[in-house]
Design brief:
Length: 623
């Protein structure tokens, strides 16, 4: 006997121990379960107590046998009872059978459709009530009637309570399933009352708003998200509480994430429903697409003329260089030098155009940021105008971070020189740097006139400039692109005393690793070892899987970097719970070997930046 058959047999045996008759019909009005008392009470043939028997056949048998008394139209009586059964409503009633016995019929619907019915023989109770009436003529007829009605009401109440308990069980299970589903949604779903207090939450708020509390029920929005965020949200919430649906986006300043929020008025109760979603990746993709189209335009404008323009500049520089070497009158010599300077500026502009229209590879390297910022200040100060001062304030640990140092240095110099040009006279430029949660925040502020409304909207567009013919309009666009390329953000705004540009870069601290490098090709292993040591990591080498397995328990080892396909096996076998593993391979994406990898997979050949990013991702501790 199978386990399923054993469980069914035990269940049937248990039902047979119940004193009452019991039957369960499913949503299709077919018998699912019954006990022996059910067959005995109604004297049913074996064919009508088999699972799958239709309710209609059972009722037809009982009606034609006279169970419900004489019927003018038996088939109409059958159809009527079948139609009542299809409503699946709780019911309780008492009836006298054709054989003179009384039964109480108690039915309750099931959550998946169908119903369960219990039949109780109450003949003895009815006889006692009749005996009491016969022997108590001195009692008031009204008292007897009340007693009988009370007994019947108590039995009906018991049946109703059973139905309510079943309904409560179904409701509790449904609520649990609903909560489970909402907690799986990658968004925060909540309900607010008119006092801005949470009455429901799927506990996903910290995922959308990093740093907020998890269980917000009973807290106000200000308590859960902070006063600053609440001040931003309040006007929108007030309109939703007034009956207007709202959909908007906001930047969560503590984390820098872009959040889309939908507020729906509660039409039944009071308050509003809230759906908050992190759309940072979507916004970045949207902005990247917009800038890509503008860079494409730049490429179209420059690709046709770059070659010819470059040749012309080369000729001009050559001719003017020869003239400069000749003895010329003072005025002519100055003109030649001015022509040379203009031609060199044209060559530099052409180079910048090619950079913005072409692709660029990120070059992440371990960088100590405070010395880099001090070097930027030292490079920029000689180029500043008269009366312009440049200050630096750094609140960062003296620890290496993964950054594209060249791109960051170019960006900061660009911002400082832009600020100097905007002030057009004496003033002060401040360069500050600090950490803010998962970000490094670098700001450049000046005491100039600030950004115009148009500049705040269009400053990152290629070729947009407010310098009236003096600028190329590529500076801020290049800063924006370089920042986005490493996963950062750039924000322009005005302060009480001037303009401010804020760069937010991912905070990627460099953890010095002791890496077990497993690669069976000597040349490739040498190149990757150089990349690892260049990133500051210690390296232990293995040329085969068997050699690597003997080294995985070395003291101080913190990470494994292995090729997937080795001469004597697969690098996948090195994956353990103790050490993070980064795998590398030359097989293309989609190959089954890559699908079995437990973590990041590097495609050969790879740059040092991609290697650094993969090691940083693998070394993160689980949240």
């Amino acid at each position: 006997m199978t386990p399923e058959e054993l469980r069914a047999d035990l269940t049937h045996s248990g039902l047979n121990l119940i004193g009452q008759a019991l039957s369960i019909f499913d949503a299709d009005l077919r018998l699912a379960v019954s006990n022996r008392q059910y067959q005995a009470m109604f004297d049913l043939p074996d064919a009508l107590v088999q699972p799958g028997t239709s309710f209609e056949d059972t009722i037809r048998h009982i009606v034609h046998r006279g169970e419900y008394g004489p019927q003018d139209d038996p088939e109409a009586a059958v159809a009527s009872r079948v139609e009542q059964a299809r409503t699946f409503q709780p019911h309780y009633f008492e009836r006298q059978r054709a054989n003179g016995k009384w039964i109480a019929v108690e039915g309750a619907p099931l959550s998946q459709g169908g119903w369960i019915t219990v039949y109780t023989d109450i003949t003895d109770i009815k006889q006692q009530e009749a005996l009491l009436r016969a022997r108590s003529e001195e009692l008031s007829e009204q008292v007897l009637d009340h007693a009988e009605r009370l007994a019947a009401a108590n039995r009906e109440l018991a049946a109703t309570n059973a139905a309510l308990q079943e309904a409560q069980r179904v409701l509790t299970r449904t609520e649990a399933r609903t909560r489970q589903v909402t907690e799986m949604v990658p968004a925060h779903i909540a309900h607010l009352d008119t006092d801005y207090r949470y009455t429901f939450s799927n506990r996903q708020q910290p995922m959308v708003f990093p740093g907020s509390i998890g269980n917000v029920i009973g807290n106000t929005v200000a308590e859960a998200l902070g006063a600053q965020t609440f001040a931003t949200l309040r006007p929108w919430i007030d309109r939703a509480l007034a009956g207007e649906s709202q959909v908007f986006e906001m930047t969560h300043k503590p984390s820098g994430r872009r959040i889309r929020i939908a507020l729906t008025p509660d039409r039944v109760g009071k308050g509003a429903y809230v759906l908050s979603t992190d759309v940072s990746a979507e916004v970045q993709a949207r902005e990247a697409l917009s800038h890509a189209s503008k860079r494409s335009l730049a490429a179209q404008l420059t690709s046709g003329m770059a070659h010819d323009f470059g040749n012309l500049l080369t000729i001009i520089l050559g001719l003017q260089g020869r003239l400069a070497a000749m003895p010329l009158p003072t005025g002519a010599a100055e003109d030649v030098q001015a022509t040379l300077a203009a031609a060199r500026r044209g060559a530099a502009l052409l180079e910048r155009l090619s950079k913005i229209s072409g692709g660029r590879e990120v070059s992440l390297q371990p960088v100590e940021l405070p010395p880099l910022l001090r070097e930027v200040v030292a490079l920029a100060r000689p180029s500043l105008g008269d009366g312009v001062t440049l200050g630096v304030s750094v609140d960062l640990p003296e620890k290496p971070l993964l950054l594209d140092s060249g791109a960051l240095q170019d960006s900061l110099l660009n911002l400082i020189l832009n600020a100097d040009a905007a002030m057009a006279g004496p003033g002060h430029i401040a360069l500050t740097a600090s950490t803010s949660g998962e970000w490094i925040e670098i700001t450049v502020t000046d005491t100039g006139p600030g950004f115009s409304d148009e500049a705040l909207t269009r400053a990152t567009e290629p070729f947009f400039s407010t310098k009236k013919g003096q600028g190329s309009g590529l500076g801020l666009s290049m800063v924006y692109d370089q920042t986005k390329l490493i996963g950062g953000t750039m924000r322009l705004d005005n302060t009480a005393g001037g303009a401010r540009v804020t760069l937010r870069l991912p905070h990627r601290p460099v953890t010095r690793q002791m890496v077990l490098l497993v690669e069976d090709d000597n040349t490739i292993r040498t190149d990757i070892r150089s990349q690892l040591t260049g990133l500051g990591h210690a390296v232990i080498e293995a040329a085969s899987l068997s050699e690597a397995k003997a080294m995985t328990d070395l003291p101080g080892l913190t990470m494994i970097l292995s090729d997937i396909q080795l001469g004597d096996g697969l690098g996948l076998e090195l994956a353990t719970d103790r050490l993070p593993v980064v795998l590398m391979t030359s097989v293309p994406p989609g190959d089954p070997l890559r699908n079995d990898a437990p973590g990041p997979v590097l495609t050969k050949p790879f740059t040092t930046s991609r290697l650094a990013a993969a090691l940083a991702e693998a070394s993160k501790e689980p949240v």
